[in-house]
Amino acid sequence: MIYPGYLREGFEPFDPIELAQLTEAKVARGSSRKYTDFYCVGVYGGISTGYTVGCCLRCIFCWVDFSRDFPDKYGDFYSPEEVAHRLVANAQRKRISKLRISGGEPMLCREHLLSVLDLLQGQGFTFILETNGIPPGDDDSYAQELARHPDIDVRVSLKAGTAKGFQERTGAKGEFWRLPFEAIESLMRAGVTFHVAAMTDARLMPPEERKSLLRELRQIGYDGYVEEEMCDPYRTSLVRLQAAGREIL
Ligand code: SF4
Fold first, then answer.
1. For 136-187, what is the HEC assignment?
2. Which is the closest atom of ligand 1 to the Cα of 134?
3. For 122-167, what is each residue's pLDDT tens digit?
4. Which pLDDT score is estimated for 229?
5. Which residues contact 223 (CB under 8 A, 6 or more apart)?
6. pTM of the model
7. 1: helix, coil or strand?
C-alpha cells in the first residue's frame, strides 16, 4: 500500500487498519509519539490540548493540518511523561480543568496513549479522548483498558451512516463503515463514559444517510445525545474538498 496523502478524485479506497499500522510506524518510536504542538483552546469551555500527528482515515472535510497527510515531514517525538507534563502545565497556567489529545487520531499508538492516561489519572482533570472509532472498533480490548480510567470522557466522531458515504468521504473501504459503531458498542459494554458526535452537515451527508446513521445508533442501543457537526471553512478543509472534487464551501 502506498501511503496516502489527501484524497484526489478517482482515489483508490484503502484498508484503514493497514493505514493505522503504517501510520504508527511513522509516528511512534517506542512509547513516544509525534505531536506538532501543545496549547489551550476555547472549545469545551477551555481545554489544554496536545496535537498529535497521524490518522487512519482521510476525511475530505478534515481541518487538521497537513501533518495528517505527510506525517514524515511534521512533528517531534514526545514521551508520555513529556506529554502529560505539557498538558498539565498549560492547563494550570490558564486555570482550566480539561485536557485532551486532538489533531490526528489520538487512539493510534495505544501504548503511548494508555501511558499518558496512567500518568494523568487522579490529578483532578477530565480527559476528553477524541476518536474516529476505528482503533477501538477493531479491538474490543481497547475499551476495556480505557475503563480503568474513570477521569476520561470519550468522544466518538462518526463520519458516515452508510458504507458508500464512508468510502466517499473518508477514503477507507466501505466494508469498514461499521467499525465506529462497533467501538460504541464496545465502550457501552465496558462501561466507559462517552458521547457521540457525527459530521451530518447536509452539504456532505445526504438526508437519507443521516437517517441511516441515527437508525444504526438506535439499533445498537445508543439513545444519548448526538452532537451534529458542521464543516467549517478552514484552509485545510477547503484544499482537501477541492482535491476530492467536492467544492461545497
Ligand atoms: S476528520 Fe478526524 S478522522 Fe477524519 S481524517 Fe481528520 S483527523 Fe482523521
1. HHHCCHHHHHHCCCCCEEEEEEECCCCHHHHHHHHCECHHHCCHHHHHHHHH
2. 3
3. 999 999 999 999 999 999 999 999 999 999 999 999 999 999 999 9
4. 95
5. none
6. 0.96
7. coil
Does the pLDDT at position 225 exceed 80? yes
Sign of CA dihedral 64, 69, 70, 72: positive
Q: Is residue 33 part of a domain?
A: yes
- pLDDT score for 143: 98
Total domain count for the chain?
1
What is the CATH classification number for the domain harbouring 121?
Answer: 3.20.20.70
* Structure confidence at residue 247 as a pLDDT band (50, 70, 90): confident
The beta strands (E) that lie in the chain are given as 28-29, 32-41, 47-52, 76-78, 98-103, 126-131, 152-158, 194-198, 226-228
Is the Cβ atom of 231 under 6 angstroms away from ligand 1?
no
pLDDT at 249 over 70: no
Mutate to test the pocket of ligand 1, among 64, 102, 107, 236 (most ligand atoms within 8 A of CB): 64
Q: Which atom of ligand 1 is nearest to the CA of 57?
A: 5
The span from the CA of 123 to the CA of 152, in Å, is 12
110 occurs within a structural domain: yes
Domain with 22, as residue range(s), is 16-243
237 lines ligand 1 (CB under 6 A): no
Q: What is the pLDDT of residues 178-201, one digit of tens each?
A: 999 999 999 999 999 999 999 999
- Does 248 reside within a domain? no
CA distance 187 to 106: 16
**Looking at the domain assignment, is residue 119 inside a domain?**
yes
